[in-house]
Design goal:
Length: 261
């Protein structure tokens, strides 16, 4: 009797060991796939602007350099391409840090009303180019204090508002609102009346490099990383982010933050 029990235990243990090993190998395989896909995406993203810059430089070397007007135009375009490269590399750097959990939060108490206002000030020009009105339905004299990493939340607000401008319609609006929730939380909403997102694309929105319209977005100069950075930052705060959208009607991105006591 004891022998059979022992045998049974042993078999069970061997089975468990085999299951664990299999799981470990599966995990490693998934990780390897993920790494390959990431590298593939990165090189793809870098290729376009790199070839653009090279194209302008080669044309200059080919003789265009002798014409002052043309050379200035081409140098400007090459510089634009480099700016885009820097922007992508910065986003990649940020996403890598966020994904390996290498980015510690610098929590402080600050007035979110003031932060929204300063992001609006920075993006006013960009919005006015598309005649988009930035609206903020808050009383500037009534501060709302939150506990969060101010710099990262500034980035979240910037990414969301920039998107609402990029994917917004001409003469449209972007509205930011802040509302108290129960349990000492606030919810910050960024709403636009732009192109919206279809139900099929909505679930994939926060994936790295995901874009609804590859060519259209590229014209707008995005990296497809903005929303995944936003999601990582909010999740690092142990907060939530939501999106609601309707095609041709508009989108609303919202996230929660902890109110300072
Ligand atoms: P990108 O650099 O392409 O803007 P994001 O990660 O910020 O990358 O956004 C991913 C995609 O989600 C965009 O390419 C766009 O198709 C869609 N998107 C993001 N924000 C909005 C919005 N406010 N309205 C409509 N579509 C949006």
């Amino acid at each position: 009797q004891p022998i059979t029990t022992d045998m049974a235990t042993l078999t069970e243990e061997i089975d468990k060991y085999a299951r664990d090993k299999k799981l470990e190998i599966e995990t490693l395989k998934v990780r390897e796939e993920y790494r390959k896909e990431f590298l593939g995406n990165v090189s793809h993203e870098l290729k376009t602007p790199l070839f653009t810059v090279q194209g302008y430089l080669l044309t200059l070397l080919d003789g265009a350099i002798d014409d002052k007007n043309v050379s200035e135009k081409y140098l400007n375009r090459a510089n634009k391409g480099l700016e885009r490269l820097i922007y992508i590399v910065k986003d990649l750097d940020m996403i890598t840090k966020l994904e390996v959990g290498d980015l510690s939060l610098n929590l402080e108490t600050f007035n979110i009303v003031e932060l929204v206002q300063s992001v609006f000030d920075l993006l006013e020009m960009k919005a006015s180019k598309k005649k988009i009105t930035l609206m903020f339905d808050m009383d500037y004299n009534s501060p709302v204090y939150v506990n969060a990493d101010k710099e990262r939340i500034q980035q979240v607000l910037t990414n969301l508002i920039v998107n609402s401008i990029k994917y917004g319609r001409e003469k449209g609006t972007t509205e930011v609102s802040i509302e108290n929730l129960i349990k000492n939380k606030v919810i910050i909403r960024v709403t636009d009346n732009g192109e919206g997102i279809s139900d099929t694309n909505l679930p994939r929105l926060f994936e790295r490099f995901f874009r609804v319209d590859k060519s259209g977005s590229r014209k707008e100069g995005g990296s497809g990383l903005g929303l995944s950075i936003v999601k990582h930052i909010i999740e690092a705060h142990e907060e939530k982010i939501y999106v609601e959208s309707e095609l041709d009607v508009g989108s609303e991105f919202s996230f929660t933050l902890e109110k300072a006591k």
